[in-house]
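Dear U.,

For the methods section draft, I wanted the exact inputs and outputs in one place so we can describe them consistently. I've listed the two proteins in the order they'll appear in the manuscript figures. Please don't edit the token lines directly; just add comments below if something needs changing.

First protein:
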Amino acid sequence: MKRRDFLMLLGGAALARPAAAQAQRPARIGFLGFGTAAATADRVEALRAGLRDLGYLEGKNIVIDFRWAEAVDRLRELAAELVRENVDVIFATSSTEVEVARQATTTIPIVFSTHFDPVGIGHVSSLARPGGNITGLAALQTDFTGKALEMLTQAAPHVKKIGVLWTPTAPHSPVLQAIEIAGVKLGASLQLTPVRTVEEFEDAFATMTKERVDAIFVVASSLTGRGRGAPMLLAELAMKHRLPSMFGYKASVVAGGLMSYSPNYIELTRLAATYIDKILKGAKPADLPVEQATRFELVINMKTAKALGLTIPPTLLAFANEVIE
């Protein structure tokens, strides 16, 4: 072999080695979660299960960098940290986490699993063609909120004024508009009460009680679903004030709340793995249509209904996916 050909062969090998090493490098997913690791454990396992089904094994061909925060400001710091570490994909469960991740990067793909209104909030251009670096699965809260409010009034026909607990740190404007429209249709007045932290829950309930609300509607958010002890505390406060309640998370009904109406968040999180898989294989988020949840679950706690002196209509019981005795 001529000396020049030998040197060219060596140079080619040197160039090929980094590319091969990069190809073998495990893909890195940044998991950005609001709340505590314990409160998010079911979603973590759902995502892991979805990835395993697609052939991804942690420590071998994929690495998941977990970041949790119980305050939005801290969440921003963690999102910026994941961007600096140049992860391949950021998994941001819902609108709160997506908004923070969006502010941190316009280039790293962001996948969500339970976004409540990605178009209305402006995180994607359209469901069919997201158009940016964000995509995933959506449970359009603007669509099912009215139904949830209606079922609350069916369970408690005496209700004329409903306290609405919502989270300003989540981009909830379109959802609040849908709630107000539903309130008008049902002939019920609304008392909108914001909460930014779990510590504000008790004062919020005290305020709504002073305003003589007849029931409580908790708008689903990362705070109300995954804040430290949030589902149980909300259920306890609803019972303490003897208020019929509708939640966006089943956990609050298991803890003693009256009802919840929501998509299956665990199933949606498992399905989010398919988006991550497609992106890691070269697909662009801009071209991956947002998939909408089609199944919703009504859970009713009959023990709580009896404690509140409520008779749940047979039609509502027949519609329920789960009745807790």
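Second protein (the one for the lower panel):
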Amino acid sequence: MNGEVIIFWVTAIFAVVGAVGMVVSRKAVHSALWVAFTMVNLAILYFSLGAPFLGTTQIVVYTGAVMMLFLFVLMIVGVDSSDSLLETIKGQRLVAIILAFAFGSVLTSAITSTGFTSATGLAQSNEATGGNIEGLADLIFGRYLLAFEVTSALLITAAVGAMVLAHNERWAPRKTQAQLQRERTLSGHPTPLPNPGVLALHNSVDTPALLPDGTASQESLPTAFKATPQQIEDGTNEVTS
């Protein structure tokens, strides 16, 4: 076994372990870290195969930009918040399992029915086009130009759609500091409101702050993260116990 084979088996095993860890992890942050671990191993595999541009792109763009963006979003939403395991639509879990097995069967059938020819290697492919970057440019802006442009149009459409959905139309002038101070004083809270997670076991934005008497303060939560009575009761019981 030469060095290339050893690197392949090590990185391949680590990549599969990271993929399995992403699926079985209960916390979203752990899943994101497992995905980053898998991407790093894929980048090492690219470098070992003589594709430095793909390996660098894998680390800089996917691991360093996309996955860190996922982690930042999870940190803002709250790393301690957990998704409900209750089915909002009856039978959706069974349908998801059936579709997953069907997709796996179709994918396995497509792979096994494909005919493979002898591999030529990246060295010969790079020599034919003048290098790894030149070969990728020839494929992206040549044979797969239409697919590349359609994908870029979809990404731009998704970005514009996200901005439109997140846009909040302002129908009144922005309030001044004096107006905000008067409204806060008249509302019965002359002092600043407590931040989410104050005196609680968790400090995420979806955890209500606890008042000195042990009750939860709904006013400490943003509008999108108002807690349910059951969540308030659970948080109070955890702290008082």
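Candidate sentences for the figure legend, describing the second protein: The longest helix spans residues 52-77. Residues 1-79 form a domain with the Four Helix Bundle (Hemerythrin (Met), subunit A) fold (CATH 1.20.120.1200).

Thanks,
Y.
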